[in-house]
Design goal:
Blueprint: H1 3-24, H2 36-43, H3 54-65, E1 77-78, H4 87-99, H5 109-126, E2 133-137, H6 140-158, H7 163-166, E3 175-179, H8 184-192, E4 199-201, H9 211-220, E5 225-230, H10 242-251, E6 255-259, E7 284-288, E8 300-304, H11 307-314, H12 343-377, E9 383-384, E10 392-396, H13 400-413, E11 417-423, E12 426-432, H14 440-456, H15 459-466
Parallel strand pairs: 1-11, 3-4, 3-5, 5-6, 6-7
Antiparallel strand pairs: 2-8, 7-8, 9-10, 10-12, 11-12
Helix pairs in contact: 1-3, 4-12, 5-12, 6-8, 6-11, 9-10, 12-14, 13-14
Family: Belongs to the group II decarboxylase family.
GO molecular function: aromatic-L-amino-acid decarboxylase activity; pyridoxal phosphate binding; transaminase activity
Protein name: Aspartate aminotransferase family protein
Length: about 475
């Protein structure tokens, strides 16, 4: 078999098994059928002395690995704010792997061109400044890191310190502030950027930052400061008051960053754009395409209004790297030099959907969340504990033990999945609606599954007893 034939057969095996996997999702139980040790046994723990033909390797991986797969792309998987995959985005992602272009440089016209188009379309859809720098990274954590690093260097420069040249030691301390219900990825990004843990500002019951408390905290100190705001609380889906908060931040000569892993996409919809009012005046934004936009994992998007702040923080030159001398290279916008063309599936998803399709997708996800909230709130013994404003729904039973039992029963049922979590001191089940394929039928089947799980967990009896 020639190498070209081996490529063709390996890809055919992958296509056949991928199609089988996608076809199984409508009825496949969410939970895996095997644990990690069982998968290791099936794959083979010992490195073989001799090689194996590529098609056989791919077939073995697909067959041995299938029992350990989680139904994450299912329309009834509501854990961890994980989106599904649009057909064009998946196909484009396969091409990205086959093309194998290092998209750190403008030396690759096809992938660079597609990414630059995608970046412009994202800015246009979200209503962000057209001159912004846009980098395609692994996810919201890295997007937050990228933005916060640009923010760090710029606010230190305003204070007379060149951290890019001299490092952080000896320079002014950067004050880092965030709402009490910030996502932990903001803390991780801040640590990596040398900012340490943020000072936490009080938030209201839905997780929105207290703007008056923020203003007071900024007034207490002096020197460079960065504030991380939030578009889409991970439990409630709530959005900070950007119009007021950004004004307060800029009045203190501080940098306003917005973590909007899934919530930033609300700006694309006329029905939900009010949630992001005033956010375009911020200095940087982080979001994911593999959530709301439904591109394959992984793809985060880092956006910085001052493109030069981003390129100065991330960029570098080397004698062996090609430069066209007219504009920055793709690697000047992200922490990586070598990387896959993550923005190409973004281009494909946006081309498949079009402007109207993106609006319809955002509206459909939020509508599914509202439908879930209405149905789940009607199950005896269950209560929706957040104000459902976008795509997050949190439910709780009449005590932590009952809520945990409900989650266990739902997992065992296999039809749907929600993330066990804790919010406001109580156990909750969090339903995050991010999959483009979550339709009315998926919502109805999920409500039926939760109803069965509630009965198994004895919630109906508890509700009657409490009446």
């Amino acid at each position: 078999m020639s190498e070209l034939e081996e490529f063709a057969e390996a890809l055919e095996v992958a296509h056949r098994n991928a199609s089988r996997w996608l076809a199984s999702l409508p009825e496949r139980p969410i939970a895996p059928h095997a644990d990690i040790d069982q998968i290791k046994d099936a794959l083979g723990r010992e490195l073989p002395s001799h090689g194996t033909p590529a098609p056989e390797v791919v077939e073995h991986l697909a067959t041995a690995g299938e029992p350990g797969l989680v139904g994450m792309p299912s329309s009834r998987f509501f854990g961890f704010v994980i989106g599904g995959t649009l057909p064009a985005a998946l196909g484009a992602d396969w091409l990205v792997s086959a093309w194998d272009q290092n998209t750190g440089m403008r030396l690759t016209p096809t992938t660079t061109g597609a990414e630059e188009l995608a970046a412009g379309w994202v800015l246009e859809l979200l209503g962000l400044p057209a001159v912004s720098g846009v980098g395609f990274v692994t996810g919201a954590t890295t997007a937050n890191f990228t933005c916060l690093t640009a923010a760090r260097d710029r606010v230190l420069e305003r204070a007379g310190w060149r951290s890019g040249r001299d490092g952080l030691a000896g320079g002014p301390k950067v004050r880092f502030l965030a709402g009490a219900e910030r996502h932990e990825s903001v803390e991780s990004a801040g640590r990596m950027a040398g900012l340490g843990l943020p000072r936490l500002i009080p938030a209201d019951d839905e997780g929105r930052i207290d703007v008056a408390a923020l203003e007071a905290a900024l007034a207490e100190g002096e020197g460079p400061a960065i504030v991380a705001l939030q578009a889409g609380n991970v439990h409630s889906g709530a959005f900070d008051d950007f119009a007021a908060a950004v004004d307060v931040i800029h009045a203190a000569d501080a940098w306003a960053h917005i973590d909007g892993a899934f919530g930033l996409w609300a700006a694309a919809s006329p029905r939900f754009r009010h949630l992001t009012a005033g956010f375009a005046a911020a200095d940087s934004w982080a979001t994911d395409a593999h959530k709301t936009l439904n591109t394959p994992y992984d793809c985060g998007v880092a956006v910085v209004a001052d493109r030069s702040a981003l390129t100065e923080a991330m960029g570098f030159t080397a004698a062996y790297l090609p430069e066209d001398g007219t504009m920055s290279e793709p690697h000047d916008l992200v922490p990586e030099l070598s990387r896959r063309a993550r923005g190409v599936p973004v281009w494909a998803a946006l081309r498949e959907l079009g402007r109207d399709g993106v609006v319809a997708l955002v509206d459909r996800l939020a509508g599914a969340a509202a439908g879930l909230a209405a149905g789940l709130g009607g199950i005896p013994g269950l209560c929706v504990v957040n104000d459902v404003v976008f795509t997050q729904v949190c439910v709780a039973a009449t005590g932590d033990e009952a809520t945990v039992a409900l989650g266990d029963a739902l997992l065992a049922d296999g039809v749907a999945y929600a993330s066990p979590s804790r919010w406001h001191g109580q156990a909750v089940l969090r339903f995050s609606v991010s999959n483009a394929h979550t339709d009315a039928e998926a919502v109805a089947r999920t409500i039926d599954a939760v109803t069965r799980a509630a009965a198994k967990a004895g919630l109906a009896q508890e509700s009657v007893g409490l009446a």
